[in-house]
Design brief:
The protein has 151 residues and is an all-beta fold. Helices cover 0% and strands 62% of the residues. The protein has one domain: Calycin beta-barrel core domain (Lipocalin). It is built from no helices and ten strands. Strands 1-2-3-4-5-6-7-8-9-10 form a ten-stranded antiparallel β-barrel.
Length: 151
């Protein structure tokens, strides 16, 4: 249940995001972020807030671990909508976390996939991909490269 303990602390975040999440031909944009994460419930919960200073927005994620199912639920909210998005659920295996959930994007039903990988003491990678065909094909639309901030 301590899978997200690595995230505790402050991070510089290099964001690489498609301008249209479902369009494989859309251009990519790069922008910075700063994230601060905290550990709760003896590692069974994690909370982070990320600010995107050049975008004028922020987001937050609540992660909750269900020990009976050995499953994490991740909930995202953005300051631009004020809404809590449906959760993605999953677990870590071999150092990689894979999480899936049903959602909609601009009116289109999608399956969302979050991947946490390349996790070290001072770095991590997060990717978001959407599938509009039930998981047959995936389009990665957002990548975050995290680097731990030094005091």
């Amino acid at each position: 249940m301590n899978d997200f303990d690595f995230l505790t602390g402050s991070w510089d975040v290099a964001n690489h995001r498609r301008t249209a999440f479902l369009d494989p031909g859309s251009r990519w944009e790069d922008f910075p972020g700063v994230s601060t994460a905290s550990r709760h419930f003896d590692g069974g919960a994690n909370f982070d807030e990320i600010a995107f200073p050049t975008k004028g927005t922020a987001g937050l994620t609540l992660r909750l671990y269900d020990p009976a199912r050995d499953l994490w639920s991740l909930y995202w909210s953005s300051s631009s909508t004020g809404l809590l998005f449906p959760p993605v659920t999953g677990r870590f295996t071999g150092g990689t976390g894979v999480f899936h959930g049903e959602d909609t994007h601009e009116g289109t039903p999608v399956t969302a996939r979050f991947l946490w990988s390349d996790i070290t003491k001072d770095s991590a990678r997060w990717e978001q991909a959407f599938s509009a065909d039930g998981g047959e094909t995936w389009l990665t639309n957002w990548v975050m490269e995290l680097t731990r901030r030094r005091a």
